[in-house]
Write a structure and sequence with these properties.
Layout: E1 3-8, H1 13-22, E2 28-31, H2 35-38, H3 41-50, E3 53-56, H4 60-69, E4 76-79, E5 91-92, H5 101-106, E6 110-112, H6 116-130, E7 141-147, H7 152-159, E8 168-170, H8 180-187, E9 194-200, E10 206-212, H9 223-233, E11 240-242, E12 262-268, E13 275-281, H10 285-300
Parallel strand pairs: 1-2, 1-3, 3-4, 4-6, 5-6, 7-9, 11-12
Antiparallel strand pairs: 7-10, 8-9, 10-13, 12-13
Helix pairs in contact: 1-10, 6-8
Length: 310
């Protein structure tokens, strides 16, 4: 028996990445709409309600509208937008940070795809908070850089123009990036983290860097202890890995580009009183399309890495 899947927003950046991962799968029946049908509200409504599972690759308002058009009680939804990531009525689609996450996603009707930056941040910080190594009230800052594909069509066009703006630039300098609420909610931190994102002139890839002054923390956790906790947290995870004995000179923004993998690193000062937790992922892979397909796989009961790039 095949599962009928409709990707609403299939011609956007994330939608095209998802299509690549679903191509050739005999367990899926992909519902497609031509250009005219995509502009036809009735055709979209029919497709949304005909599907067993819908993946929304739309702006937030359009994603909310799409959900409102679904009246088939059996249609399940994965939303790749920001619209439902902190909604209590939606299951957060990052099972690796929740001991019961696989079961929750497998049985969910509504799954919110994690954001790219939150994926790296939460993978680094949640196991340490859960273990009590980092106090929940600790002030956390995040430095991160993404490939320009993370900014959508407008940013892609800007960086691929004949006069691209720069090799690197910061943004969200007002400290109001839309991913902050997601990071705050799903980490369990008392205070929202200070988030300093930036974009580089490369199409895909991402580095998320969380510096910690461990030497002034209660009990001063060592890098060895931190690494042990992260290693144990992801021992049985197919896509999240703690990378050890790694030459820092080889770590670039494109470390995990073109994969659906999430690699974690723990770097430390000579006296081990300062630590940098680093996550490397593809903003279009584990940060978007790869995560959506991983959740789809769990929801239909096949191996979670089917169609993914390791």
């Amino acid at each position: 028996m095949t599962t009928r899947v409709f990707v609403d927003g299939a011609v956007g950046t994330t939608g095209l990445e998802i299509a690549d991962r679903l191509e050739g799968r005999v367990d899926l029946d992909i519902i497609t709409l031509d250009d005219a049908q995509r502009r036809d509200a009735g055709a979209r409504r029919d497709a949304l309600n005909a599907a067993d599972l819908v993946i929304l690759c739309l702006p937030d308002d359009a994603a909310r509208e799409a959900v409102s058009l679904i009246d088939n009680p059996n249609t399940r939804v994965i939303d790749a937008s920001t619209a439902h990531r902190i909604s209590p009525d939606w299951t957060f689609g990052f099972h690796e940070i929740d001991p019961d996450g696989k079961r929750k996603i497998a049985g969910a009707m509504r799954v919110s795809n994690p954001g790219c930056y939150p994926t790296g941040f939460l993978a680094l910080i949640v196991p340490l908070l859960r273990a009590g190594i980092i106090p929940a009230e600790w002030p956390i800052s995040i430095n991160a850089v993404s490939g320009y594909s993370g900014g959508g069509k407008a940013m892609i066009a800007e960086f691929e123009s004949s006069n691209p703006p720069t090799a690197w630039r910061g943004y969200a300098l007002s400290l109001a990036h839309k991913h902050v609420s997601e990071m705050h909610r799903h980490s369990g931190l008392v205070h929202a983290p200070l988030f300093a994102p930036s974009v580089a002139n490369t199409y895909r890839g991402m580095i998320v860097d969380v510096p910690l002054l461990t030497g002034v923390m209660r009990d001063g956790p060592t890098s060895y202890v931190i690494s042990a906790i992260l290693r144990k947290a992801y021992t049985d995870c197919a896509l999240v890995n703690l990378v050890e004995d790694f030459d820092e000179a080889n770590l670039t923004i494109e470390h995990a580009a073109n994969t659906d993998r999430l690699d974690l690193f723990v770097f430390h000062s000579t006296d081990d009183k300062q630590v940098r937790l680093v996550a490397a992922l593809d903003n279009l892979g584990k940060g978007a399309a790869g995560a959506a397909v991983q959740s789809l796989n769990l929801m239909i009961g096949v191996d979670e890495i089917t169609g993914l790039r390791l």
